[in-house]
Amino acid sequence: MTNSSNPNATIKGPSGKSPRDSTVTMTEIVLPSHANALGTIFGGKIMEWIDIAGAIAAGRHARRIVVTASIDALHFVAPVKVGHIVHIRASVNWAGRTSMEVGVRVDSENQVTGESHHTATAYLTFVALDEHGRPTQVQPILPSTPEEKRRFESAQKRRESRMRLAEELKKEHG
Questions:
Q1: Residue among 46, 163, 154 nearest 102 (CA)
Q2: What is the tens place of the pLDDT at every residue in 11-64?
Q3: Is residue 3 part of a domain?
């Protein structure tokens, strides 16, 4: 595209990345060492896998080292038994100046029957760091599909809620 006042000048389109550029899929098997006395996985193990998948997705987007700033929500929907396969899918829903929201969905699969169940959903915020360990700028997210746009808009609402909570906590503990 050219600038009308200077036909030789090039105007760059919007810079940013698609959520597809950051998508991560991890697969794990639930071993006896991951299980509690009920024979189901410890919630903390699922949380660990969620954090790892989220960090990989955020790092792919930022092309930087990232750190977990918060976990907005983590909802366990169904238990996962020993021997089941766990699929963890993560991608960046929204990006601000230095932070990114990553949505993570966890599904479990009974490898004998092939039956699959939604197990957990989580939203995490990661911050990109420069070589000195300070927050650094990241590219925006450019959602294109209806699902990506829905996730982007929902992430903006969650961010507004996080910011209100941070202000309240600052006033309370100031």
A1: 154
A2: 333 589 999 999 999 999 999 999 999 999 999 999 999 999 999 999 999 999
A3: no
Neighbours of 38 (CB within 10 A): 9
Tally of CB atoms within 10 A around 112: 8
**Measured distance CA(57)–CA(91) in Å, rounded:** 5
Q: Which pTM does this prediction carry?
A: 0.86
Residue 96's domain is classified under what CATH number?
Answer: 3.10.129.10
